[in-house]
Amino acid sequence: MCGIVGYTGQCDAVETLLNGLKRLEYRGYDSAGIAVTNEQSGLQMLKTAGTVDTLEEKIQREWPTSPDQRFTSGIGHTRWATHGAPSDINAHPHLDGSGHIAVVHNGIIENHKDIHSHLEELGHTFSSETDTEVLAHLIQECYEGELLQAVCAALQKVEGAYGIAVLTDYEPEKLIVARHGSPIVLGVNDNAAMVASDAPALVTFTRRVIYLQDNDVAVVQPNDITIRNVNNVPVRREISHLDWDVTAAQKGGYEHFMLKEIYEQPESLQNTVGGRLDWDLGTAVLAGLNVTPRDIADIQRVILLACGTSLHAGLVGSFYLQDIADIPAQAEQAGEFRYRNPIITTDDLVVAVSQSGETADTLAAVREAKHKGALVSGICNVVGSSIARETERGVYLHAGPEIGVASTKAFTSQVAVMLMLALKMGRCRRLSRRHGDALCRAISTIPEAIQAVVEKDREIAEVAQKFKDLRSCFYIGRGYAYPVALEGALKLKEISYLHAEGYHAAELKHGPIALLQEDVPVVAIMTDMPGKEKTVSNVRECQARYSPVLGVRTEGDEDTADIADYEISLPDVSHYISPITTTVALQLFAYHVARLRGCDIDKPRNLAKSVTVE
Ligand code: G6P
User: Fold this and answer.
1) pLDDT in tens, 181-236
2) What residues make up the domain containing 74?
3) Which residue of 20, 292, 350, 530 could cross-link 374, Cys pair, CB 3.0 to 4.6 Å?
């Protein structure tokens, strides 16, 4: 949810922290702050409601640069409010009662009320409404002359999820960081070290990183990093190489990360499918899945667990698995899964779908499924993320870092992976070699087909112009176009704040049709696939209620020509590929509507890229 950075070394910590925070702003942007120190100046802190730019301006105003006062260690935070409204006071870092210990925190301390009351009895007073300030005071209460010991002692009293970084001017060249349920990654360099909640903050600093695991506590110094668990037992963690391109975490000339990521899809999809098709056997190679044909033959059902956009990708996946692999499959909201006592058997394959690999509800659902004995795997984008590690088997998207809060390239790669999963499972069951070959051919055309859609950008922008003043609208589709309708509507509401609902085209008559009128348009996905004729009939019903219809159709398809009031025509592709092509067109449509309305597309209000709280 929020972004954490920390630095200790010889460079200017203020500048380094601000650079890191700018790269993490997609994690949260309602308030930001830093705390810094050096050998002489004690602990200094500045924080504010607003963005990292607001913080930077405040720093320039209130901390005039002086060559004698360079800070060499510090921690910083960009916040997405959970406890307490976005305000200067609730912004992180938070100080202990003495003003010598500063803490930044992601996650939620669930027993903060009990700790708060206990600390109040001991005479502590608090200025914010946050659980993090309670943690800072708890660390102070546990402090007996060494920060590491104090943090470990405090964390033993804490319940909930955290990724934290702690700084004190008692030990100015040291950061203590810890994780339990919320990621922390360490960047290793010569004579300096950096920490962050997410790797994009580190890419310009180093490629050598260490991912902390749950219950790890690290002492980070310029020339030394030691890691132990909360019980103070040393643990070894490997150094990994970050293979992200620096430019991947920058806008590269595009107005927004979202647009850049939409345009990157021919390449990100090539990276997802490249090298994963076995043309000899007409199947897909998903080595990380680590299942034998015998395992696949024994699987009786697939359950796909996810949230948000990933859930829509899971829904497409469930259709593929039933259609292609002939296996019962269902996509389920991860947030509900464990609360309704799911019936899971050892013959079930559970697939967690998550771009970040950190979504709290999906992670909790994975644990429940594992506990019940299912074979659990993950489809994640972020390498080394919590879900990727907990599932131990799975498929990475290789889509590159996704910074835009509204997910785009991760969705299309998830769908491509699920199509390959269905192909692989199908070929181990009843799918013929001939069908396997045809699917391999279809999959290999995805990047080219997406390039053709992206090239329609200007046309789509013109259509968006007609819809920018709508108040409310519906997206409809059936079959593979149904999850696309859900995803198209989600994109529009996320970034343009317009009310949009995705519906199965057949469901429109069961209620929503009552809302249709001249100023409530309908976006109908009626590309050439089974069921499109029925969607065309539904379009006519909408038009009879005076709703203007935007039809997303296949170029040259006579059945859908001259039906809709406005149209986006897309290349003719296999209906298995159309969820990808149509979604990309609807991403561009949502993007342009939001741009024309002047919305802050990369920082949509109230949203966060990665939701690490329930
Ligand atoms: C948040 C993001 C969505 C994303 C969802 C699931 O709500 O804003 O874009 O689809 O989380 O995230 P995941 O990382 O699990 O795919």
Assistant:
1) 888 999 999 999 999 998 889 988 999 999 999 899 999 999 999 999 988 899 99
2) 2-249
3) 350
Does a structural domain hold residue 449?
Answer: no
CATH number for the domain spanning 426: value is 3.40.50.10490
Q: Are residues 74 and 212 in the same domain?
A: yes
Is the same domain home to 186 and 267? no
Q: Which atom of ligand 1 is nearest to 308's Cα?
A: 10
> What pLDDT, on the 0 to 100 scale, is given for residue 230?
81
- Nearest-atom number in ligand 1 for the CA of 407 is 9
pLDDT of residue 29: 79
Task: State how beta strands 301-306 and 329-333 pair.
Answer: parallel
Rounded to 5 degrees, φ, ψ at 468 are -70, -20
Q: What residues are in contact with ligand 1 under a 6 Å CB criterion?
A: 307-310, 354-356, 359, 362, 405, 407, 607, 609-611
Maximum C-alpha span of the chain = 79
Residue that is last in its domain, among 249, 273, 302: 249
What pTM, to 2 d.p., does this model score?
Answer: 0.84
Residue 422 near residue 317 (C-beta atoms within 8 A): yes
Catalytic residue numbers, as ranges: 2, 609
| Structure tokens, 445 | 């055309």
Q: In whole angstroms, give the CA distance from residue 66 to residue 61.
A: 13
Residues 159, 180: Cα–Cα separation, whole Å: 10
Atom 8, ligand 1: which residue's CA is nearest? 609
Tokens for 46, please give them.
């500045």
